[in-house]
Amino acid sequence: MSLEKNYFKIISFRSLKVVGIAVWVACLSLPANLFGESLVRTISLEASDQETNIRIPVGSSVTFLNNYSQELYKTSIITDLSEKKLVSIESFAPGQTFGLQFSKKGPYSICYWLEPKTDSTHPICLQINVVPLQTA
After folding, report:
1. Is pTM beyond 0.70 here?
2. What is the CATH classification number for the domain harbouring 76?
3. What digits encode the pLDDT tens for the residues 71-81?
């Protein structure tokens, strides 16, 4: 009888371990955090129907990806309130990424050009709104 009890304890422990791992993986893949705010982890810079006003919770780290098949020029992230440049990249190669953590709430913009000469074209800009975490 003792051997049988030990067998069930081992099986139960293994089952709990598998369930625990499954719950942990499921939490990592959720599109929202515990506070109900959608978590944007990667912002793809590409010509698409991507939303141009992106909401990011304060303190979030975001990866920016050049998903174009060409180089981007004069890529910059600025705070809209003070117009201070946080990032400035002269040449952003296809497939290249960079990361940034947004520690202060407020409006930001990421702008870039498709041509090296910026005097004859307009930049493509995405609006980033860094918001406080909200409860669900």
Report:
1. no
2. 2.60.40.420
3. 999 999 999 98
Which residues are paired to 54 by β-bridges?
128
Is residue 104 one of the residues assigned to a domain?
yes
With beta carbons less than 8 A apart as the criterion, state whether 88 and 98 touch: no
pLDDT digits (tens, 9 = 90+) for 86-124: 999 999 999 999 999 999 999 999 999 999 887 877 899
Supply the DSSP symbol for 76: E
Cβ pair 75, 87 in contact under 8 A: yes
Residue 113 lies in a domain: yes
Q: By 3-state DSSP, what share of the chain in percent is helix, strand and coil, each rounded to 5?
A: 20, 40, 40
d(CA 106, CA 5): 59
Spatial separation of the C-alpha atoms in residues 123 and 9, rounded to whole Å: 63
Query: What burial letters (b/e) apply to 47-75, b meaning 16+ CB within 10 Å?
Result: eeeeeeebebbeebebebbbbbeebbbbb
- For residue 22, what are the domain limits? 1-30
Number of separate domains in the chain: 2
Token code pair at residue 131 = 């918001």
Is 36 among the domain residues? no
